[in-house]
Design goal:
The chain is an alpha/beta fold. The chain is built from 7 helices and 15 strands. The protein has a 5-stranded parallel beta sheet with strand order 2-1-3-4-5, with helices on both faces. Helix 1 packs across helix 5.
């Protein structure tokens, strides 16, 4: 059974996070339990030094002379394997936090959906020994999602829909702006779609459809291929050439079959 430890200076947040995690463990049949909660850094350090801890939820601003990042740095000196998940309302800490080999960064206020997405990915990581991955901010409300959980992005009017492994995120953002922030494995395949090549399970070139290897409950697990983008997409899939993906492809003139 996995041991989860929580540290936050706010008792109400500790109580809420505990309830959220307990609910996620039950609903997803996860063998885990919360073995300790702490409000003070010293209590956390003392417990971790003498007990086995698999996952640590750690607030960054602990209203103390030692921050969550300082704590994580100390913990990493004697425990290199614990999964550290930071929680904070201060998005500016995200880059510093990842220097501590952070598994995830969950913005406050904490939601069950956001925590559940992290826990599901964490269990996949434990079972498959995957490497922790990168994150992107998809709007101006501090919504951060795991890049590798995104199957495709759809432009629908003024909205962008991010189809991930666990849910669909709706945001109001610029298609061109988000394109520039994505890694090279995201390919513009249609005027209204960007696909994550790493999540593609099949391409039907006759019907111009992309199918995804996804575990989510969304009805739509496919997206269209536009004639303007077809040759570039097929070239990428065949040769792994990511140099002309996304909106950069708009500037190229291609002959499409």
């Amino acid at each position: 059974m996995l041991s989860f430890v929580l540290c936050d200076d706010n008792q109400s947040i500790l109580d809420r996070l505990s309830k959220i995690l307990d609910s996620i463990f039950i609903e997803n049949n996860i063998s885990a339990e919360i073995t300790f909660t702490a409000k003070k850094p010293e209590e956390l350090l003392s417990y971790i030094k003498s007990n086995t801890v698999d996952v640590l939820f750690l607030d960054i601003d602990l209203k103390s002379n030692i921050s969550g990042i300082d704590l994580a740095t100390k913990i990493r000196k004697f425990n290199k394997d614990v999964y550290i998940i930071f929680t904070s309302a201060h998005l500016e800490y995200i880059l510093i936090a990842y220097k501590c080999k952070t598994f995830d960064f969950i913005p406050k206020p904490i939601s069950k959906e956001r925590v559940e997405e992290t826990i599901i990915r964490l269990m996949e990581d434990i079972n498959n020994e995957k490497t922790p991955i990168s994150f992107i901010r998809i709007d101006n409300k501090n919504t951060i999602i795991n890049q590798d959980s995104v199957n495709f992005i759809k432009k629908e009017g003024m909205k962008l829909l991010f189809y991930t492994d666990t849910r669909v995120y709706e945001t109001y953002n610029s298609f061109n702006k988000i394109s520039n922030e994505l890694p090279k494995n995201f390919i513009r395949c249609h005027k209204s779609y960007i696909a994550n090549v790493n999540k593609i399970s099949n391409v039907n070139s006759n019907s111009n459809l992309i199918l995804f290897n996804t575990k989510n409950n969304c009805n739509e697990i496919k997206c269209n291929i536009g004639p303007k983008y077809k040759n570039n997409l097929m070239e990428v899939l065949k040769n792994g050439n990511f140099s002309n993906n996304l909106d950069g492809f708009n500037n190229r003139k291609r002959n499409v079959n």
